[in-house]
Amino acid sequence: MADLRDLYQDVILEHSKAPRNFREMAGANHRAEGFNPLCGDRFTIYLDLEGDSIRDISFQGSGCAISKASASMMTQSLKGKTKADAEKLFGRFHDMVTGHEPSNGAPVELGKLTVFSGVSEFPVRVKCATLAWHTLQAALEGEQDAISTE
Amino acid sequence: MTTAAKKSAAKSRPVAARQASAPSSAREPAPPYDVEKIRGDFPILRQKIRGKQLVYLDNAATSQKPQSVINAITRYYERDNANIHRGVHFLSEHATEEHEAARSAIQGCLNAAHSKEIIFVRGATEAINLVAQTYGRVHVGAGDEVLITAMEHHSNIVPWQLLCEEKGAKLRVAPINDRGELLLDEFADLLGPRTKIAAVTHVSNALGSITPIRKMVELAHARNIPVLVDGAQAVPHLKVDVQALDCDFYAFSGHKVYGPTGIGVLYGKAALLEAMPPYQGGGDMISSVTFEKTIFNKLPFKFEAGTPDISGAIGLGAAIRYLDGIGIENAAAHEHDLLEYATRKVGAIPGIRLVGTAREKAGVLSFVMEGIHPHDIGTILDQESIAIRTGHHCSQPVMDRFGIPATARASFALYNTREEVDALVAGIEKVREVFA
Questions:
Q1: Which of B88, B127, B128, B347 could bridge B266 with an S-S bond, Cβ 3.0-4.6 Å?
Q2: Architecture of the domain spanning A4-148
Q3: Closest-approach residue (CA) in chain B for A2
C-alpha cells in the first residue's frame, strides 16, 4: 500500500509552503504558461537564457502541493545548467515519477529531486509533478502559448 | 403489446414476464427510513478499498446503482435483447414494451402530461444541445439573447455559446450573491425583448444551491420567453413536477439518479416539440422516406434517430421505480439531514471555508482549506478510501466568481450515512495533520 508520507515528504511540504524562486522575472527572455485542466493548476515559468545556459529561472502561479514543490525544486536544480542538462534531468525525473527504469545513456543525478519518487505510487498525480517541467520545455523552445498537461 | 399477445407471453413464460414489469424494490407506504437496508441494495458499497470500507461521497458526479437496475440490464440482455419499434417477433415486441414502460415510469416521475413528451437522449448534455440546435437555431437570430445563470455547468453554457456564435446572438448571465443564490431581481431585469430562451439550472452541481425555478419560469413566461431547466442535480434529490413548474424543457441524466450511464431525458412540452425540426436524421425518426421527401415520425420518435440505448432506458426505468419505492420525499429528507449534519461538522473544522451557503441547498458540500489545495485533500482522503471530487466541477465560471481555482466537494445520496460524514471529518483532520 502506498504511504501518504512517501508522497508528501517533509521537503515537498516545506517547498509548497515556501516556494523558492517564486517571483515574476522582469528581464526574462523566455517564458511559458502551463495549465492542468484537471485541477486548475496554473504556472508561469520565467527564464533568463544566455546562449544555452540558464542564467536565471523563476516561476509564479497556483497549484497543489506537489506541483508547486516540483516547480520550486526544479528552479533550484536548474540554475546555471545548460538546456541539454535540463532536458536530461527532465527525462530522468519523468522516468522516476512514472515508475520507469532509467532510460539509456549515462546516469543523471537527480539529487534532491528524488523526494518525488513517491509520486510513482500515485499515478493521477504524475501530471502535477511534471507540469512545471513540461512548461519549462515550452519556455526553452521559445513557445509563448499556454501549454496543457491534457 | 396487444392483450392477446400479453396473454400468450404470460402463458409461455409466466414468471419471467411478470417479474419484468414488477418494481422489484417496492415498499409499503411510509416505512421508517432504513439506510442500512437501502445500502444493502447497492453491491458496490459493500467493498473495501485498500483494506478500508469505501465511503462514496461523489454522487454529484455519478451515483451508484442498485441491484434492481443491474438486474434489469442483465435480464434485458439475457432474455429480451432485440431491436425495438419495428420487429413483429416476440422479443422485439417485448423489448419495445419494456422500453416504453421505462418512458412511462419517467413520465410519472416528472409528472409530464404525455409520455410522448419524454425524449430519450444520452444525458442532460445531449438534451441541452438538442434544444439549442433545434429550437435555438429556429428562434435565436442576430442580436437576440440567451439568458443563463452564473452557476451553470459547462453543459448549460457551451451549447448556447456555440449557438450565439453561429447566430450573432448574445449570451447573458444572471448573477449570484456570495452565498451562491440567484439574484432574482437581476434575473428579471435581464429578461428583455431580445431574450429568446432562458436556460437555467435547478440545482447547482458545484454549490448545491436550489434555484427559485418556479418564480423564474413565471417571470420568463410573463414575457413569453420559454425556459429550459437543467435538472441533472435536481431529479436525484427533489420531487420534480414539470407541470407545476410549467417549464418548457427539462433535462436530466440517468446515471446521476441511480440509473446507467449513456441514457438521459429531455422533457419538452408537446406543442413545442411538435413545432421543432428534428435533431438528428436516421432510422426510427421517420414515418416514410423517398429520395424526394421524408416524413418525420411523430413524437417522441422524431427526436430518437437510430437504435436507441435500449438497455439504458430499461435500466433508467428500473432506477426510477427503485427511487419511487423509497419515495423521493423520504430520500430528500434523509439527504437534507445529512447535508445539515455535514455542514455543521465540516464547517466547524478550523481553516475550512464552505463554498456555496445558499439557504436552499441539495446534496452538495463544497469547501476549500486554507493553504491546502483541493487536489491534495482529494489524494489524502482517497488513501482513507473516501471518494470525493476535487477540481472545478465543470463550472469554471463559478470558481472564478468565488476567486478560487477549485474546491473539494462531498456530495450525498440516499444511501449515505452520518457515520460516513464522520469518516469525512476524520479524513479532513488527517489532511490537516499531513500539512501541519
A1: B127
A2: Alpha-Beta Complex (3.90)
A3: B383
